[in-house]
Amino acid sequence: MGRKFDYLGDVEAFIAVVEHGSFTAGAVALSTTPSVLSRAITRLETRLGRQLLQRTTRRLGLTEAGRLYLEQARSAFTLLDDAEREVQGQEGELAGRVRLSVPTTYGHYRLPPLLARFARQYPRVQVELNITNRNVDLVAEGFDLAIRLGHLPDSGLVARKLEDAALLLIASPEYVRRAGTPQTLEELRQHVCLPFVMPRTGRLAPWVFRDGERDIDWLPSSSIEISDDVLGVVSLAEQSLGICQSYDFIVRERMERGRLVELLPQLRGRTRPFSVVYAPHRRQSAATRALIDLLTTNAISDEDSAGSMFS
User: Fold this and answer.
1) Domain 7-88 CATH class label
2) Would you kindly state where each structural domain of the chain is located, as residue ranges?
3) Pfam families per the record (predicted)?
């Protein structure tokens, strides 16, 4: 009787190529050559009778069968990892790897104190942190978790809200001295605004206000537009280039130091949600579950979101 799982090396090659984005990068990760990985994946596709990868001269893509197989294969390898740790008697000390993608706002301002606490509590867990404003494909790119901004479409992902983050309008004291203080939205149109271009749509993100019981979505216009990194609007505002809207948790410290001031405070009150998301059918490792618990346990309420950090 032949070995039943003698093809696991080919499965590992497939996962490595997908997670690293190319045969060359996958080969470096596994200390082998691209041709060896190419032959391994061809053997795997022959065994399954299905094409897993779409190969072009420019990029690799997963077929629908490849996406399904990738998700199940990762779950199987996670099970093997868990079994090995348990047999080795390490179940009392959590170990493993968690791949997390977060936007720049959360990655620079909310997440660091939480990750520091997580690292102290679970020193054997390796966290791979991807900080980007691009919405990654959790399954295809091999991420366990992501933190997403805004109201999430029905994507099939599980979403657990972390907070509703308060927004406010700010500028530098120097800009206000030079250009004056707008008292209404109509006056705001006479000022230099610093809008952000949303990466998913290529459109300007509206500024949101609340006038009594009325919610207002206001579209700024300017000779300066910022894309890719939303934190750029705050940096430019701090250098007196204009006015921007940002999250209270980002600008609070600068305001306390007198480097920024709030404008139109009577129109504040709107928020945007941040949530942690993950694939519902993918088996989560103990390390992933521990990080989800830490994030959601320290979620901020609406009342706390204005200016407070995680305790």
Assistant:
1) mainly alpha
2) 7-88, 96-162+275-299, 164-272
3) HTH_1 (PF00126), LysR_substrate (PF03466)
Architecture of domain 164-272: 3-Layer(aba) Sandwich (3.40)
Q: Where is pLDDT greater, at 57 or 200?
A: 200
pTM summary value: 0.68
Beta bridge partners of 145: 100
Q: Is the pLDDT of residue 303 over 60?
A: no
Element (H, E) at 60: strand 60-62
**Architecture label for domain 96-162+275-299:** 3-Layer(aba) Sandwich (3.40)
Residue 60: C-alpha distances to residues 20, 99, 122, 140 (Å):
11, 21, 35, 11
Beta pairing class for 158-171 and 244-247: antiparallel
Reported confidence tier of residue 250, pLDDT bands at 50, 70, 90: very high
**Residue spans of alpha helices (H) in the chain:** 8-20, 23-30, 34-48, 64-87, 104-109, 111-121, 173-179, 185-188, 231-238, 248-256, 286-297
User: What are the pLDDT digits (tens) for 189-218?
Assistant: 999 999 999 887 889 999 999 999 899 999
Q: List all residues 6 or more positions away from 285 whose beta carbon is below 8 Å from its beta carbon.
A: 78, 81, 82, 96, 97, 98, 144
